[in-house]
């Protein structure tokens, strides 16, 4: 096939249509709470490859004014998070801010189309810019000519790229299992109070003898982050030479560990503005906007003013990061501050004064011996995934453009992923 002949529109290789959400208002509670997954643009953006997680469901009434799309449908966002893609791993409904693509199996491989759209993301976002709100319409998407070679070439390219995503998916499942194991042990020992020797324990004011209930500031050295003035952009960088600066957005995208950030602060900015670093393996907590987001720093970092750093103190150094992370993750923050229609209102004083239960030292040490290997495995698996993503993203434009040919080594990787 000549290169000029392989440019096609999505309509040429499959069905393309908008999701449905006819009812107004869209947030009518009578539509929700049933058995039909309802995914939105944020769910597409968060998905690694397959979309299987969602925050809302439709009931029969909701389904009646929408449409149930089959597994294997490619979701393409056209509003809010524009040009994000994910393949449905479940049957689901979605609104008209998402476009569904179903390939003609004799003309297109849905995996290739997804990867192809990734290389066209900037172009799709650029034609979506509007005076008031960015939007990629169905008509605009239909007008784009994509580089889509013959099916066999699509499949070969898709196999190589998908092998990376499959390895990432397998690692992500293992990460989830490790996280669940650690959290279940925490709840068994420290929430349900079925820790080793609990049968003989004596309780005083709701906690076993030998445990302590103190304010967080009595247990930790708590620092609060800082945001440099936006009027002085010289302090911000993203060249990889500065100190990673964690925002609420970065924390929301992280799981157990936070590895990367959208922005960095220059070394001069950190020093001149007296920004306190959260050293590697520090537990950090958001207490404004998205309250209760918790993560552990994978390297030395600084944070914004809405994030607190829980540093170990000299007297309570045995309070390990694993227990601290799980305690903060499972804490009921609504009990601390005022609640309103927009969320929970907390400040640094409330966080420093929050109650913190400290189990007996021997029990904490036993807990750490069990969960530390789980946390270490999660760290290693996340690092593997980061490397896999980088390699995939380097290969992606070269394979899609045809500059890089499929070779024996790439096929071997795909076989290992399938194994």
UniProtKB/TrEMBL annotation:
Coiled coil: none annotated. Its EC number is 3.1.21.-. One of its GO terms (molecular function) is hydrolase activity. Residues 6-175, 208-360 form the Type I restriction modification DNA specificity domain. Keywords: DNA-binding, Endonuclease, Hydrolase, Nuclease, Restriction system. PANTHER family: TYPE I RESTRICTION ENZYME HINDI SPECIFICITY SUBUNIT (PTHR30408:SF13), TYPE-1 RESTRICTION ENZYME ECOKI SPECIFICITY PROTEIN (PTHR30408). Belongs to the type-I restriction system S methylase family. This is Restriction endonuclease subunit S.
